[in-house]
Recover the amino acids of this structure.
């Protein structure tokens, strides 16, 4: 084992993570967001120790609670909601009411960051937008995530969701097969891409605040975030005057590269330089060790690679690739990843014992930091689960004050509905009692 391998294995050892400091400890994030774009932004920050307070409307809460894959719920919660809301303190406040607006403002005064992804102007209408909050907290970093930005011709009156972001960004136009309609990506790539850019911007704004003492507004357009990922699409169009065409599973900029059917599934095959192409040429049985002039040889054509893969298993192709020196990898699904010993050893599949839901495997932090690593401490919780903890500990409200606010429907907890409520105990038809587990003491 090389020096860096030995260092990395020791530095990133999962049992040692809990004893190490958290990179963003001491940063408080106040989230008023729904579905994916906003919640994913603060989820990334929470992985690295930021204290995230997720504010939802009482009873039913975030709409993402009811987005369940093929109608599947586990222990009264949607798996889609779980992966977006780890390490968060869940409170329920009706910010549309004057006293709810006051509670949110008090939380913002004690926070470093606000994350929202409502339609542009909504938070201002409620009296809790950036210009209002910065009067009470000049150091606030306010991330306004939206489909088309807070200003510009498209900013008002247009809703944006993942599918529309993929379409308007140009992502859909280059995804799919020649001669066929555009294809939408199989996951919410627009939301997660925008969330990554938003979290990067928040970290940059926090770094700037260390120098200036001042916060700032961050305007993140979901569509523009997707545009930034389109590699050579714009330069090509500007120089040639032509749109990039859909090319299916082929990479027209770095051939040969594609996905092919094999004897037991599918496999990706790629050769990035002449050395790797020579290795692939030999594997295909090519007689010419050197490249032929462009357009005069089909030795590495997609059809030849497809023929090579068709009669071999994934393991056979991987073995040939390692011996010949080109790149190959199997196309794997979630079930294979879930059981992958490599991903479990690295914490990419994170094994969690949650105080409310019990044993659950989550997505672990992607960046591995040797001295201040990320971690998953608890998973998402029911609507308003941490009301007493946040309003009592952070704002100093008494039990009587909280009871009064609850009677006036300013604060609340979950509705008796799948998606909002806690899991039902084994052998009992009622949800678990309201409580504060799954958060820092």
């Amino acid at each position: 084992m090389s020096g860096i391998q030995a260092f990395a294995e020791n530095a990133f050892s999962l049992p040692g993570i809990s004893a190490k400091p958290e990179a963003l400890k001491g940063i408080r994030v106040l989230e008023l967001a729904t579905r994916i774009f906003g919640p994913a932004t603060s989820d990334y920050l929470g992985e690295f120790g930021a204290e995230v307070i997720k504010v939802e409307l009482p009873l039913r809460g975030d709409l993402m609670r009811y987005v369940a894959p093929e109608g599947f719920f586990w222990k009264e919660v949607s798996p889609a909601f779980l992966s977006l809301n780890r390490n968060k303190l869940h409170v329920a406040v009706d910010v549309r009411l004057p006293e709810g607006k006051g509670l949110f403002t008090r939380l913002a005064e004690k926070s470093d960051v606000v994350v929202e992804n409502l339609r542009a102007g909504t938070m201002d209408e409620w009296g809790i937008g950036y210009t209002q909050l910065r009067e009470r907290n000049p150091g606030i970093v306010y991330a306004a995530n939206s489909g088309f930005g807070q200003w510009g011709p498209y900013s008002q009156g247009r809703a944006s969701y993942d599918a529309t972001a993929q379409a308007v960004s140009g992502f859909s136009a280059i995804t799919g097969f020649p001669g066929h309609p555009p294809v939408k990506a199989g996951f919410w790539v627009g939301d997660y891409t925008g969330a990554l850019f938003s979290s990067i911007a928040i970290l940059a704004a926090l770094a700037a605040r260390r120098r200036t003492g001042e916060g700032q507004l961050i305007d993140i357009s979901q569509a523009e975030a997707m545009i930034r990922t389109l590699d050579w699409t714009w330069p090509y169009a500007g120089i040639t005057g032509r749109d990039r065409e859909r090319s299916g599973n082929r990479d027209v900029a770095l051939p040969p590269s594609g996905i092919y059917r094999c004897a037991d599934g599918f496999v990706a095959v790629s050769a990035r330089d002449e050395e790797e192409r020579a290795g692939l040429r030999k594997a295909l049985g090519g007689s010419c060790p050197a490249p032929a002039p462009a357009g005069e040889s089909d030795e590495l054509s997609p059809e030849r690679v497809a023929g090579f893969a068709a009669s071999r298993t994934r393991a056979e192709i991987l073995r040939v690739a390692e011996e010949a020196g080109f790149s190959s990898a199997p196309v794997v699904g979630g079930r294979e990843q879930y059981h992958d010993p490599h991903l479990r050893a690295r914490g990419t599949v994170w094994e969690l014992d949650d105080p409310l839901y019990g044993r659950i495997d989550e997505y672990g932090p992607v960046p591995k930091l040797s001295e201040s690593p990320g971690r998953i401490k608890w998973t998402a919780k029911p609507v308003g689960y941490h009301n007493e903890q946040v309003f009592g500990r952070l704002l100093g409200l008494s039990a009587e004050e909280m009871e009064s606010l609850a009677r006036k429907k300013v604060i609340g907890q979950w509705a008796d509905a799948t998606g909002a409520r806690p899991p039902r105990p084994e052998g009992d038809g009622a949800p678990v009692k309201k409580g504060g587990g799954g958060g820092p003491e």
